[in-house]
Design goal:
Shape: globular
Largest sheet: 7 strands, mixed
Helix content: under 10%
Number of strands: 11
Strand content: 35-45%
Number of helices: 2
Radius of gyration: 13 Å
Order of helices and strands: EEEHEEEEEEHEE
Length: 127
């Protein structure tokens, strides 16, 4: 599985960013996809996931109402629209895929159960 995340950057509090992740062909047809993040000195944190079967979405409480996950299977791409960004959102964001059953069972922590991920993209929220 090859996953390439991009779209990170420096943004002021209250600003927006859209992350994109391109996966190997057909991966999104069969695997759940999503994002987790890791801030310096902190553990990994599941952010969001989207089902491959019915498009149902999962969000961590910390980002609910501010982040929106979506996918375009024709483009083999999953997106994370991040609005109203806060300094505590600063982290390296990783795109991940994992078996559908992992998403159904573990929610946003699905990446830790049979997940694959590539290089992350840095998101920095600062004034």
């Amino acid at each position: 599985v090859q996953l390439q995340a991009c779209g990170g950057g420096l943004v002021q509090p209250g600003g927006s960013l859209r992350l994109s992740c391109t996966a190997s062909k057909y991966i999104l047809d069969f695997y759940a996809a999503g994002w987790f993040r890791q801030a310096p000195g902190k553990e990994r944190e599941g952010v969001s996931g989207i089902s491959s079967s019915d498009g149902s979405t999962y969000y961590a409480e910390a980002v609910k109402g501010r982040f929106t996950i979506s996918r375009d299977n024709a483009k083999n791409t999953v997106y994370l629209e991040m609005d109203d960004l806060k300094p505590e959102d600063t982290a390296v964001y990783y795109c991940t895929t994992a078996p559908e059953i992992s998403l159904r069972t573990y929610g946003t922590n699905f990446y830790a159960h049979g997940g694959s991920w590539g290089q992350g993209t840095q998101v920095t929220v600062s004034s």
